[in-house]
């Protein structure tokens, strides 16, 4: 199936006021799986019927495909892109810069140049945020070391992997992610460091996993506990 053609027909039928349309995600990368949807980033001055609406995230079924839409007016895109950068997870910025465009009114190139610069700059981790993240990791790490129930161990370890992976990425000026993209970003940072964490985690060797988390915590600045004010 020509998924780009499906996307073009969908936009023409459902969002005719679109000025810029981009296919992103696995469809754009040519990495679709049997359950992949089509991710679309849409920008336009006249996307919505309501004048004060500036953004919409919605899911549609069209020609047998599930289509995830992220639609914005120019002002709405600026607001949500800035928010994503501030939260260190600029999803729609990645969609804008890395996706495949199929509709462009001439404004895409300067938009891409601007936000590519933001992506290249990377996230900024303040000392206060670093301390807070290390405080949370310290607390969860101690809980994991104390846990005896297998279910509690598994839950604490999963939380800990997410938290320490984010800290590792941010400490190296890399953007964070959720779901499957978090381990992918971590492996891009360092396959060796990712394996040191993931191998004992997958083996449910929680003692070794906790030690490896402790190593990464020390590397990022160490434990934070007594005297921390939040």
Automatic annotation (TrEMBL):
Q: Which GO terms describe its molecular function?
A: nucleotidyltransferase activity
Q: What is the protein name stated in its UniProt record?
A: Polymerase nucleotidyl transferase domain-containing protein
Q: Which domain of life is it from?
A: Bacteria
Q: Which residues form the Polymerase nucleotidyl transferase domain?
A: 10-56
Cross-referenced InterPro entries = NT_sf, Polymerase_NTP_transf_dom
Q: Which organism is it from?
A: Microbacterium foliorum
